[in-house]
Request: fold
Amino acid sequence: MPAKPFVIALEEHFQFPELGAMYGAHDANRAPALVQRMEDLGEGRIREMDETGIDFQVLSHSAPAVQKITDPAAAVRLAHLANDRLAEAVRAHPSRFAGFATLPTPDPKAAADELERAVTKLGFKGAMVHGLTNGRFHDEQEFWPIFERAQALDVPIYFHPSVPVEPVIDAYYATYLKEIPGILRAAWGFTVETATQGVRLVLSGVFDAYPRLQVILGHLGEGLPFYAWRINMALERDWKGSRGFKDVFCSHFHVTTSGFWSDAALLCTIQELGLDRIMFSVDYPFAPNKPATEWLHSVPLCAEDRAKLAAGNATRLLKL
Reply:
């Protein structure tokens, strides 16, 4: 049997207590045991990694981070503190952790500056943004300073889900929400919101303005690899983009396997997007490490391709 590859997971979350406390009392997902695991940036987390075959985690703050803070100054302060806390953990365990920055998107200029600080001063490998910023998608031009700075720094932006805004909850999910709360989150609501953000980014022209910009979507691309051909065909009728949707998507998007460990879905994503743009992730601690790594070592890929999925693609994109 070939040796198991080095394993990097890059949608793995922590929580800064002051920031997490703003949401925890109102979030059923924040059970005390889960909070304890998110706030552990040392021995307990590393023990779980060792027990389940995770060699390296790229850590990011859990949703919604600072995207739903309405006071821009407070968002800037808390993002700065959360990034400093993460940097401490990375410095303490440089062979096990790297970081994605928390960006105070309520103040886009400050978010771009914080991205630069996190990359150049703290050594972070990019940034993660959770859902909408107070109801606004990030393809709006007010947010483009973030993308301009990401291109200049040659780091990706990871778009991660958060709970949809109230009008969407009322219109799409309220009928089933009380009895089936998961429909609002990973079962469907997360996917709809984040896939919509991906489509809007393509339509906005941001990748024409910043042709070296790269972004990441989790959960095998929030369904977009499976719909890329149809979206491309349908948009040809009325969208006058410089390139087709699928060309833009396959040139600027990367996806991870976070919380989505299906052979069939992975193989479809490989066919549509290409293996070199797919990276292993777990979504810890919201998803467990063990079934993710067990799946990784059993996927129907050759040893070379499994090594790319497990670590090689992430190493190249993030310059680890």
